[in-house]
Amino acid sequence: MNVVQDNIDELNAVLKISIQPEDYTSAYEKVLKDYRKTASLPGFRVGKVPVGIIKKKYGPGILVDEIQKVLNESLDKHIKDNDLKILGQPLPIHSEEVGDWENPKDFEFKYELGLAPEIEVEITSKSKFTSYKIKVEDKMLNKEVERLQKQYGSLVDTDKSGKEDLIYGEFVQLDAEGKEMEEGIKNTTTVFVSTIEDKATQKKFIGLKPKEEVIVEPNKLTSNHEDLGKMLGITHEQIHGLISKFVFKVSMSKKVEPATLDEDFFKKLFPADDVKDEKSFREILKSRIEAQFENNSKDLFKRDVSRIMIDKINPKLPQDFLVKWTALSNNKSEEEAAVDFEFHADGLKWQLIMNKISEDNDIKVEFDETMDFTKKTLIENYAQYGYPTPDEEEMNQTAMRVLQNQEEASRVFEVIREGKIFDFIRESAKITEKEITFDDSKEMAEKG
Question: What total number of domains does the chain contain?
């Protein structure tokens, strides 16, 4: 067996693998013998089928399998021994395959390789990046306090409905003449006036008193068929084609009486904190919101750093190879694969940059770190749904089961590695802190 690499350019190469009979004959004949031991063909006892018949019936398929194993081992060994950093997977050049499968002797196979570019990545005190801190403005804090007061408030009866009220009543389907249908749709439900999408229809629901009625077109209440189905007591599918008008008969309306800003209210929200007055309540609430914004800030930082470094380094990619590999791997046309490439190219470039940072600065992820990360995530999930945290042994077993899923294990590895890379960048580069509003952060995120 012989493997020769022909470098077309910095990003593309062709591997030529020459295989002789001694590379595959022994394994091929062993498999034939194993087949003969269990083969059951008409006219022969099990294990007594002549080798010639076994060879004629199963030989071609066995030969393909054994030669493919040799090829795979040769490819893996060459890539590992030569420390090749490849993108995608080797692609066979079938048109240049040499060999006689009917009378097997010497074979020659060729594979295209896409090579990762050689890049230099320097993160020093001269590297400049901006870290954003999203501030909690008074108007945002006030709005959140009001929302919480409503959430923990109580419903009280009203004489007539308002824009923020909840109306109880019954929807009844009408016929073309505006009369109630005897076998039509009827459903007792509630309507939040503020959620009605059509403004003219919403206005009809304001100022209603008990026993009053209003005629509506259902599709003007909401465009969400799932929600409308629940409102009318029918399925999502039944909504399609529904053109009837309905009468809504009001039984009563209620409004939310906001909770009072007192110690009982504070304790419901922050039972672990000793909150006595509105000032300390607002301070704690503000700190919680700021903590929630930290992830937004980190995402903006990651996005800006990756964009700056991609633009600066701009790693070259074997585009033609990657388009071809994507097309073959995903059963797409090369035109579709080319569109995919354009969409994912920057992500691949950033992956190459991160790999280089990890390699140059010995950034590694240990198994214990993946276990700790997984257990922490599990504990957060248990807490979110109000479940107690299991004991250490059960947590370890659960975390191990999670990490046995290769896809999940890879995801956890990448999350931890990325965190370490950005920690390194923050420690090594010059970071300018900039305070922005939440609206600013949304605008920046939308720009991408």
Answer: 3
Alpha helix stretches (DSSP H) within 205-277? 225-232, 236-239, 263-269
Residues 160 and 221 in one domain: yes
Hunting for tokens 């300018």 — which residue is that? Answer: 432
d(CA 39, CA 47): 6
Looking at the structure, do residues 332 and 293 belong to the same domain, yes or no? Answer: yes
Q: Kindly state whether residue 123 falls inside one of the protein's structural domains.
A: no
Instruction: Name the token pair of 314.
Output: 């701009």
Crossing angle of the two packed helices 406-428 and 334-360, in degrees rounded to 10: 60
What pLDDT, in 10s, does the model give residues 337-378?
A: 999 999 999 999 999 999 999 999 999 999 999 999 999 999
- Residues (pLDDT < 50) of the chain are none
Neighbouring C-beta atoms of residue 25, cutoff 10 Å:
14
- pLDDT tens track for 169-180: 999 999 999 999
- Write phi, then psi, for 254 (nearest 5 degrees): -135, 150
Sign of the four-CA dihedral 304, 305, 309, 312 = positive
CB 108 within 8 A of CB 20: no
What's the confidence (pLDDT) of residue 395? 92
Angle CA 185–186–190, to nearest 5: 125
Q: Give residue 58's identity as a one-letter amino acid code.
A: Y
Q: List helix spans (H) across 391-437.
A: 392-403, 406-428
Burial 69-83 (b: 16+ CB within 10 A, else e): ebbeebbeebbeeee
Please give the full DSSP string across 130-191, using - where no structure is assigned: EEEEE---HHHHHHHHHHHHHHT-EEEEESS--TT-EEEEEEEEB-TTSPBPTTS-EEEEEE
Confidence at residue 139, expressed as pLDDT on a 0 to 100 scale: 93
Q: Give the residues across from 252 on adjacent strands.
A: 168
Residues 379 and 332 reside in one and the same domain: yes
Q: Which pLDDT value is given to residue 12?
A: 97
How far apart, in whole angstroms, are the C-alpha atoms of residue 430 and residue 130? 8
Distance of CA 367 to the CA centre of its chain: 23
Q: What is the CATH number of the domain that holds 57?
A: 3.30.70.1050
Residue 442, pLDDT score: 87
Please give the model's pTM, rounded to 2 decimal places: 0.73
Query: What is the reported pLDDT for 448?
Result: 64
* CA–CA distances in Å: residue 338 to residues 23, 93, 125, 333: 39, 20, 38, 9
CB of 437 closer than 8 Å to CB of 290: no
